[in-house]
Amino acid sequence: MIRVLLVDDQPLIRSGFRALLGLEDDIEVVAEAADGREGLARVREQLPDVALIDIQMPVMDGIEATRRIAADPALARVHVVMLTNYGMDEYVFDALRAGAAGFLVKDIVPEDFLHAVRVAARGDALLAPAITRKLIDRYVAQRPLTPAGSGLEELTGRERETVVLVAQGLSNDEIADRLVISPLTAKTHINRAMAKLHARDRAQLVVLAYESGLVTPGRS
Q1: Spatial distance between the Cα atoms of 36 and 62, rounded to a whole number of angstroms
Q2: Residues near 220 by Cβ (< 8 Å), separated by ≥ 6?
């Protein structure tokens, strides 16, 4: 059973998502919250598999709530998915930096929404290749790069190659095909790179790849 927490200041949005999720046999909505502070408290109480958190809310916004969740070792298994009204919301990149596993647009079709919840529960990042490229090109290119040296020197050559391909939005199977290795080996390289770079998940690995300069915005 996938345990989900809904955090949004709009009751109608929460009701709609709850009704949709409630129809699924493998998903359970364990709690709701109307702002980030309340949402953080519910996360600590319920330890959901997936926390769907709106970006813009009163009292505490979704980005700060996500940052606090990501910083708490006791909540390491909680996967945060940010909810936004626009596919390229100006806060999306900040949300990923804070520790979100991905983001969803609120007008997403039901089938894709349910699929996304299941993907997040598995620990995979919700970053489609096209969205990743747009996100990086629009925001990362405008930000100063952090010094390259925060763990990059510990990566093997193959791990670096793998991280670059992850940052380009490729799946494990696509990375395996590109590097002529098995999907399991590709996943192993990704997990080792995440551990060395202290990345919470695949989404943060993408952010780190661009911020460190390992991958250049606008280039594939």
Answers
A1: 6
A2: 133, 168
